[in-house]
Amino acid sequence: MIKRIVPIAALIICLLITSCVVIACDNTSDEPAESPNPTPSQTVEQNTLPCIADVVAQVKPAVVAINVEAISYDMFNRTYREQGAGSGWIIDEDGHIVTNNHVVEGADTITVTLDDGRVLKAEEVSTDPLTDLAVIKIDARDLPVLKVGDSSASNIGEWVVVIGNSLGRGISATQGIVSSTQVSLAVSPGQTLDDLIQTDAAINPGNSGGPLVNMAGEVIGITSVKVAEVGVEGMGYAISSNEAMPVIAQLIEMAYVLRPSLGISTATVDRRIAVIYRLPVSSGVLITEMLVNGPADQAGLKPGDVIIAVDGEEIQSANDFTRAIISKEISQTVEITYWRGKAQHETSATLVEAPSPNLN
Question: Is 102 a catalytic residue?
Answer without folding.
Answer: yes
